[in-house]
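#structure-requests
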Amino acid sequence: MLILTAVLTTGALTLTACGSRDDDKGSSGDSGSTQTVVIGLDAPLTGDLSALGLGIKNSADLAVKTANKDKTVPGIKFELKALDDQAQPSVGQQNATQFIQDKNVLGVVGPLNSGVAQSMQKPLNDAGLTQVSPANTGTELTQGNNWKTGDKQRPFKTYFRTATTDAIQGAFAANYLYKNANIKDVYLIDDQKPYGAGLAASFKTTFTELGGKIVGTDHVNPDDRDFNSVVTKVKGSGAKAVYYGGEYPAGAPLSQQLKDSIKVPLMGGDGMYSADFISLNKKAEGDIATSVGKPVEELESAKKFIADYKTAGYKDAYEAYGGGTYDATWAIIEAVKAVAADNDGELPDDARTKVLDAMSKIQFEGVTGPVSFDEYGDTTNTMMTAYQVTGGKWTSKLSEAVK
């Protein structure tokens, strides 16, 4: 619901529906009033996962600045409201409340973690506030808890994502390890968090269907940094690789301690695909990670994004989710544009509702390729990439769309 602003002109009282309206002379010298639309951003901006979170924040910021510079939505000025969730579900829920209470917020980008998303989905849904994550991969977030049985039910109509699901990522990882890396015996470890546990379960299902053998399983605390006990178990299992469902702050020391004892690669998902995994791990060479989408560096559609990001001078890299974040933010911008266009260039009182309605119809060519959402709010882009640490950096090995 937007604010009604009373303006007295030539003796007449005019009521104007707006978000936050102010006079804007503009750089070109033209005058007129603008409406301010705020896009919320939730990510871990401090703590162990801040490398990914800051890349998300900067990429959303770039999208907002580009929309304002190019006047993508005439009469609309976008602002980014970035909040730090510290990768904690309880903080994410508090941030969701802040976004809801700010009536100028018409969409939220984020979060990074699936566990944080679970705490944010219901309040944002109850408020009718659109949410688009560039990083969440937990399948249940869009398809419900019974998706494994084929009973897919979308639990929250306000939730969308530009990252594909763990059901797709886990299957892709299993196929790559079994068929491309020719590894048949794997020790499976997860960090017990929604993302890590879900990804490991998806990997296990496909890997065993292919004929692979899970020679042992274990769980670790993601806050631990001493993994010698589980390394001992892996060493005695005959495993030719370890698959880790979790994120790089724990995955990096796990990998290093593993190689101190047994020379086998560690493989993980997009939560491992960060430059920090390598900087925290002196023995990362040969490790494997999968991540959503194709490397932006290899996409013609991403050249402008990469150049603009560099020009903007952000001190932090855009990391794994930069392109997807730009597209998630731009999806909200496109929805706002459609709503304004349908209302004579201004936003209606029920702009949040109208933006949500517009999201399901959004289609555009984004940084990561064509952007649109299916009936569950999932991205229609199922491209995945396998990376391997080679010469001290992540190198793409295989990219393909997963059916």
